[in-house]
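Priority: medium. Attachment 1 of 2:
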């Protein structure tokens, strides 16, 4: 009798949890295995140049394993209209890595990404061995001739962990809607 009662209580408890998850919208992460970082918006720290200012975000060491600074901005009309950001040469040309003034070397080739409806590349850079430097992630994705670039200063943070988390953050609804507004796009319902 006690076993039956315990099983009934457990079943009711699981039912309540399932109903709560359905009602409150609990769902599986969009990118399984990607670390969910806690971003705080900060002031754009760089002088104004021909591309203007963008948005800056910071993630504290206790949330990211190292202090991470992320800078995102559009560059209107600066992308290869025919192919977009489809190779490392184009990523290097449009990227904002020079803003950071850090010494780093590419960790390997860029990886294809998708942010909202846009496609592009992300690439990690490592501090030179035995020399002062910082790890960096560069991301660029485009809509026709317009590109959105993001660069993250990782300090000693692990690019293998942080790069997918940065791309996931850029894929959040607020960031995709911001990119759409910055690129001057009218609302078009698209399947992402």
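Attachment 2 of 2:
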């Amino acid at each position: 009798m006690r076993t039956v009662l315990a099983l009934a209580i457990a079943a009711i408890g699981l039912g309540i949890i399932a109903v709560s998850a359905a009602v409150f919208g609990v769902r599986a992460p969009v990118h399984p295995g990607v670390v969910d970082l806690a971003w705080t918006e900060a002031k754009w720290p760089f002088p104004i140049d021909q591309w203007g200012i963008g948005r800056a975000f910071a993630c504290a060491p206790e949330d990211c394993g190292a202090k991470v600074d992320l800078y995102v901005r559009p560059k209107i009309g600066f992308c290869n209209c025919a192919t977009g950001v489809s190779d490392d040469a184009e990523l290097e040309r449009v990227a904002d890595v020079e803003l950071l003034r850090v010494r780093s070397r590419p960790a390997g080739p860029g990886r294809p990404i998708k942010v909202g409806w846009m496609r592009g590349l992300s690439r990690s850079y490592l501090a030179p061995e035995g020399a002062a430097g910082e790890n960096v992630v560069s991301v660029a994705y485009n809509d026709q001739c317009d590109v959105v670039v993001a660069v993250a200063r990782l300090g000693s943070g692990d690019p293998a962990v942080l790069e997918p988390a940065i791309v996931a953050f850029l894929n959040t609804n607020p960031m995709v809607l911001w990119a759409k507004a910055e690129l001057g796009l009218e609302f078009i319902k698209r399947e992402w």
